[in-house]
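Justification of computing resources. Each target in the renewal requires a structure prediction run like the one illustrated here; the chain below, 418 residues long, is used simply to show the kind of job we budget for.
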Amino acid sequence: TKEGVPSAPLMLRAIPFPPEEIQISWRVPVTLNGRLRNYSIEVFNVDSPGRVNKTMVGPLVTNFTIQGLVENSIYSIRVAAVTIHHGPYASVVQSLNATKPSPPLNPQVLQATTTSLTVTWDPPEMRNGQIQNYKVYYRRSIGGEEKSVSVSGSTLSADLPDLLPHTDYNISVVAINNAKDDNESDRAMTTGTTKVAAPVKLVVSTDGLNSTSTSAVFSLPAMDDSNGPISYVEVVVYVGNIGEGQPARSALPSPNELTAYKEEVVWYIAAHFNYVDYQSKMFEIGDNTNTADNKSQEFINAPLHPSSKYYVYVLVVGYNDDNEMVHTFSDPAVVLTSQQSAEPAHVAGSGSSTTTLVAVVAVVVVAVLIILLVVIVFVIKRRRRSASIDNSTMISGVLFSDNCAYSELTFGVYYVGE
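Resulting structure tokens:
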């Protein structure tokens, strides 16, 4: 069978790479009509149509980079398939004036940590030149300054560092080619959220801290939930020794290791608050009350011992995105209790001093009542005796009483008739 003329190559496309290159690609003709031997490529500047650059490439080649061109020029490019016959040309016209590319495709957050996000994307559909780099802009969804990171044009991902935990971010990706002016593409947008971190460490102020021999009053700090949701808050006490320093942070117990007060423990929970019930307020350590929010539990805020040293922490507990417990201890407030005074200091919630006072008052009241009763009986008897004497009459040494007369002289008794 005789070879015929092949049809024209399909889908000829040209992509400019200023200042002096154009990349072309095509597909094999539908009809070859023989054995394909090569492709013929012709290029000429439309401003100089008499100068045509011709190139032959092998039959397996379907893309080619044309080099040595002049920037800010328009070129006509033709490609034909060749068997023993030269087929018709497919043609395209391309300007070598670089313009900005189209936006990158499919931006998305691939990975998140508590302080970083990893963003990926695909190259733009229209590069309009060589992509020199990509720039990723990011800022907090609510407030905050916009920042950016840049990567090379061959890289399709970027890490966004130094972010805040548990925070939403608006992210946009642009492609930048080698156009002289306005070479940044429109923005391709996405969003991302960093993961929950351990709670923010609270600062316990010792300003105004006031201690007695059995208690101490200090201010609970304001809560900060910017790192993620909080589950509960506890006031934790460490029983120290005079002369020793505070425990190292590496030696602090986990929340699951803490227990309610017992005489033999050195770490105990003095107060427990659900997050919604927690308030920044003055709090008394050692008031001997049950501070549990659930009365099936018991966290006794036990009285402190005189002349002792204590470290008081505020422990904040939450759960991260993987439902794992995360927690943070504040730095401690140091409490030094005073010596036991001659009069026992009043401890809120303690009934011992009140009971003693009531007993003393009762004894005094009973004694006073007994004395009053004795005095009243004595007065009544005296008045009766006085009334008996007043009913008798004394005449010339003779005491008359009713119908009888008594003589003081003869001690005789004379009857005086009516």
